[in-house]
Design brief:
Blueprint lengths: L20 H12 L27 H10 L4 H8 L21 H6 L3
């Protein structure tokens, strides 16, 4: 799992991927429904369709917001149980890394 958002993280800067309001709502709904959100820099887009591989990592920006909301997804909880995720390695309270307290604030930032 990544411990810091990548430079292009949509949760650190909502304009990075030019996501419209509807797409942001879809992303958050999926995350809140317990779907993992992967760092786009670690997904294999070799055939134009994103493929999760052994090198794919959870998006640190998403995990920071999940932790702030207390909704870490099942994948994250499993990783924590097997010692592959340590919330203390994330700078969860650093508003400079991810400047939104919640996913709803992130959605509304570019509404």
């Amino acid at each position: 799992m990544m411990v810091k958002p990548c430079p292009e993280c949509p949760f650190a800067d909502p304009n990075q991927l030019h996501l419209n309001y509807e797409r942001k709502v879809e992303i958050v709904a999926a995350i809140r429904a317990d779907s993992p959100f992967y760092c786009h820099n670690t997904v294999d887009y070799g055939e134009d369709v994103g493929q999760v591989t052994s090198k794919t990592k959870m998006c640190a920006g998403s995990v920071i917001l999940e932790e702030r909301e207390g909704i870490l997804n099942q994948y994250g909880r499993i990783m924590e149980r097997v010692g592959l995720y340590d919330r203390d390695k994330l700078d969860i309270d650093n508003m400079e890394l991810v400047p939104y307290p919640t996913f709803d604030d992130w959605i509304e930032a570019t509404a």
